[in-house]
From TrEMBL, chain A:
Residues 188-215, 228-265, 292-370 are annotated as: Disordered. This is Ubiquitin-protein ligase. CDD domains: RING-HC_ScPSH1-like (cd16568). The lineage of its organism: Eukaryota, Fungi, Dikarya, Ascomycota, Saccharomycotina. GO terms for biological process: proteasome-mediated ubiquitin-dependent protein catabolic process. GO terms for cellular component: nucleus. SUPFAM superfamilies: RING/U-box. Keywords: Ligase, Metal-binding, Zinc, Zinc-finger.
Automatic annotation (TrEMBL), chain B:
The keyword Nucleotide-binding applies. The active site is at C87. This is E2 ubiquitin-conjugating enzyme. Its EC number is 2.3.2.23. CDD domains: UBCc_UBE2N. It comes from the Eukaryota. One of its GO terms (molecular function) is ubiquitin conjugating enzyme activity. Residues 3-149 form the UBC core domain.
Length: 370, 150
């Protein structure tokens, strides 16, 4: 494997310096709650990561409090999402440990500890997958709660996003719940200095169900959200491009039905294979690709299908070399969702182009919504 | 007793191998969730030269729930009452599972260095502190000499 630039510099440094780097990287992969290696790392919008199980436990204690990040205390308005990069990095790390178990762990006790840790990590990933399938991620807190929103046109009064009741600071002292609809308020109403203090990542968000809105209003809002394009750069005018963003909310119900199809993106991280190098490479690939995230143009997905098969071997791994080659090509961006693909897909020899692109669209939704 | 969570074992180990200056914490032999704690009074405060005994207990839900901390040594402080209970936000509403034994004890030590009479637990002490700060600090020094002598 050819290393260049900073990577090659680091790899030719003294052992001591390399150790320091490894130590820092390993420290960064620890959960601030359980102090273990992150297991199903979930990222909050502030950027801090915790194990899915730890974060869920934290959200579920103090039921009537606002949700906040254990580390920086920023309000958790949006549902945390899976941090694929850390997940894959640690998956390949544990693959190495597993493969070198006999050499690295001389004592029986150490091996037993490693086995237990691996078992726990497997359980955690199953636990997360199960919650996701059931549609009960984080015990459904993000579906069943509301956010305090202050609208500048409304004198900046904080209101419940669910029922629009005014949230008076004195009502919120003991319990962070809406006095009217009793929804748990995820952020802190009294700290709403201005409407921008809720971080919705610049994207319009929709709370509640169709029933909460008057006739036509819901559809109108959904339309607005759907047509919203944060970059607004993609002006190629394809009708599909507007659909590629903001899918999530309307498709939610449909998504539940299709969960089984695409829930298993975790499967692909459980590397059951000796190809450590391949796994490592796909991680690098993911880093590279993540940096290139942009509006994904689904309409051109079809062209890339042939690529997909070229670059994937029968086990569903992205071969390191082919990825490296294609790194410089712009179309790599389009392949981002493909890497998340579950292994099942590769078993299907004949997949019609239409089905394929449809499936990938759903996957996009998932990775967005998670 | 249910097995001890790994996090508690790790924290305990680190408290021994990498202790916080001016603070000791040792788990009880019979109950590894119960710690005997000593905190040195911060230099420059009325508690200087004092060594304060505390007890710290990690509840079953720790780290989702804050540790219970209490002064065993008598202390004259607006945020600590006669029973040794401490008024500190991170031990109550502002607890976070990212905090740990060492950070909690550091916060308690910081509370000794900067009492907050505007959010009192011991009302009489706080009143004294606001009305006559020099006198209150003198009393705190005397109590330190009397009860917390090393």
């Amino acid at each position: 494997m050819g290393y260049t630039g900073i990577t090659s510099k680091i790899l030719t440094q003294k052992k001591k310096f390399q150790k320091l780097i490894v130590f820092n990287l390993l420290e960064a992969c620890q959960c601030g709650i359980c102090h273990e290696f992150l297991s199903v790392p979930m990222m909050i919008s502030c950027g801090h990561n915790y194990c899915y199980r730890c974060l869920k436990n934290w959200f579920m204690t103090n039921v009537n409090k606002e949700l906040n990040c254990p580390n920086c205390r920023e309000s958790v308005v949006n549902e945390p999402c899976l941090n694929l990069m850390i997940e894959q990095t640690l998956a390949s790390l544990f693959e190495v440990l597993k493969a070198r178990k006999k050499k690295m762990f001389k004592e029986e006790k150490e091996r037993a500890d490693l086995d237990e840790l691996l078992r726990e990590r497997f359980d955690d990933s199953f636990y997360h997958k199960n919650d996701k399938n059931q549609g009960t991620l984080f015990d459904g807190i993000f579906k069943n709660s509301a956010v305090a929103i202050a609208d500048a046109d409304d004198d900046g009064i904080p209101r419940c996003s669910n029922c629009h009741w005014e949230l008076e600071p004195e009502d919120m002292e003991d319990e962070n719940i809406c006095p009217h609809c009793h929804a748990r308020i995820r952020n802190n109403a009294s700290s709403l200095g201005n409407p921008n203090s809720i971080n919705l990542n610049g994207r319009p968000t929709m709370m509640g169900n169709r029933d909460d809105y008057s006739d036509g209003e819901y559809d109108q809002i959904v339309d607005e959200i759907r047509n919203y394009n944060p970059s607004d750069v993609d002006s190629s005018g394809e009708s599909d491009s507007s659909e590629s963003v903001g899918y999530g909310h309307e498709d939610r119900e449909e998504e539940d039905e299709n969960k089984e199809e695409h829930d298993s993106d975790l499967d692909s991280f459980v590397v059951d294979d000796d190809e450590e190098e391949g796994a490592g490479d796909s991680v690098n690939g993911a880093i590279h690709l993540a940096a290139n995230q942009g509006p994904v143009n689904l309409s051109s997905e079809e062209d890339k299908d042939s690529d997909f098969y070229e670059h994937h071997d029968s086990d569903g791994f992205v071969s390191g070399d082919s990825l490296g080659e294609s790194d410089n090509e712009a179309p790599v961006i389009q392949k981002r969702p493909v890497i998340l693909d579950d292994e099942d897909d590769d078993d299907e020899d004949v997949v019609s182009v239409n089905q394929r692109s449809k499936r990938q669209r759903r996957q996009l939704v998932l990775s967005d919504d998670e | 007793m249910a097995s001890l969570p790994k996090r508690i074992i790790k924290e305990t180990e680190r408290l021994v191998t990498d202790p916080v200056p001016g603070i000791t914490a040792e788990p009880h032999d019979d109950n590894l969730r119960y710690f005997q704690v000593t905190i040195e009074g911060p230099a420059g405060s009325p508690y200087e030269e004092g060594l304060f005994q505390l007890e710290l207990y990690l509840p079953d839900d720790y780290p989702m729930e804050a540790p219970k901390v209490r002064f065993l040594t008598k202390i004259y402080h607006p945020n600590i009452d006669r029973l040794g209970r401490i008024c500190l936000d991170i031990l109550k509403t502002n607890w976070s599972p990212a905090l740990q034994i060492r950070t909690v004890l550091l916060s308690v030590q910081a509370l000794l260095a900067s009492p907050n009479p505007n959010d009192p637990l011991a009302n009489d002490v706080a009143e004294d502190w606001i009305k006559n700060e020099q006198g209150a600090k003198q009393t705190a020094r005397e109590w330190t000499q009397r009860y917390a002598k090393k």
